[in-house]
Task: structure prediction
Amino acid sequence: MPLYIKENGMSHKRRGTHSIWKGRWTFILAATGSAVGLGNIWKFPYITGEYGGSAFVLAYLLCILIIGIPVMMSEIMLGRDGRMSPIKTMQTLTHKYSSPRIFAAMGWIGAVSGFLILSFYSVVAGWALVYIGKMASGMFVSADATFAGEALGVLHASPVTQLIAHTVFMIMTGVVVALGVHKGLERSIRFLMPTLFIMLIALFGYSLTTPGFEQSWNYLFGFTLEKINSEALIAALGHAFFTLSIGMGAIMAYGAYLPDKAHIGKTVLIAATLDTVIALMAGVVIFSVVFSYGLAPTAGPGLLFESLPIAFGSLPGGVIIGTAFFVLVAIASWTSAISMAEPAVAWAVDKGYSRIVATSVVCLVAWTLGIGTVLSFNEWADTKFFGLTVFENIDFITANILMPLGGLMLAVFVGWFMSKEAVAKQMRIRSERVFITWRFILRYLSPLAIFAVFIYGLTN
Ligand code: PHE
Result:
């Protein structure tokens, strides 16, 4: 199952100019590379802590199942159907399936979300870059919770260090997006995913030996429904979109290069399962450390950086393992960031701008916006809009509003405006029953669930 991609990157050109990504696992790896990132290792554990554990986890799993997976399938399908940048694809497809022009807005919403997400994502990925150095220095050997907290505090208090790291990460992202070095990207994804997975399994093994393991397990999986509230529901919904990279065009841009014969359903099931398993494993490991060393589960965005260094510091060979771990986190973030920039860059390329110019502008705008996130952790920590810092606002607007809105539009478009025959031809789901179930979920359950969570959140 070869995947054809134009050499200079994910441009709007039809496939066939060059076959760069090959092999039947390539698209799965690319989709997983986009999906697995800070969302799994950094964001999932910390928001789970903020919303009190298992009830949030249950809501998140349900959202992945009844909204995330069906919408991800739709988004990839539309990408393949249109075979252009997400904005152009949605413009073309609204025409092709004679649907209201409003659906074309989905492409725009996605490109804007991409800028916004990339802006804070790059800052947090920058923290991971800084932690590669911190781990390698050996400073965390036998560290306790106080020490780890202080080390993070030093980073958060320094706008300059964060800005430098943010800049480095943005340049790393821009270079790959501009040059479209897919061979390099493919190779790194091929190597990264298994390594990250093995490392997480090893860490999981370690967490089994910690005194906090049982508490961690119960905290995440001892489902007690009464703890769920409207805010947690919205966060779970938003996180399902964020972690699968859906509702903003990233996965649609990748779908544009999927061969006609490829099975979308299988691909999505594998990518979504890997994504979920990685998040849950990261959660178990992090909360085992949290409960073993008396950290606060509600520590917020610093949770990953406060907890894991303590674990590495207590392990033989922890300096090397810890350094390698943050290298992997940085690479996983990198393969996600690349896909975030893609909708906006591909659109500019559609418009006739060169890929380098398009990428430079997108990265520069996202970089500038990112300064707001850097300052949210120091100078502007008390500057709040609607009770949230700049970082929290951007995160809330993208994950909890724009991406679910994009997903709602996708579900309604595919469910109600594309004919059953057109969808069936694209999806090639062999079993009639599976196809009917999937389409039913997409037509009724997914839009209603998104809608209900929105309304519930607004009224509570
Ligand atoms: N899914 C990525 C993660 O979990 C984040 C992402 C969001 C990537 C949107 C692309 C688009 O880290």
Remarks:
- Residues 34-35, 37-40, 117, 242-243, 245, 248, 250, 336, 339-340 surround phenylalanine (CB under 6 Å).
- The CA atoms of residues 115 and 378 lie 23 Å apart.
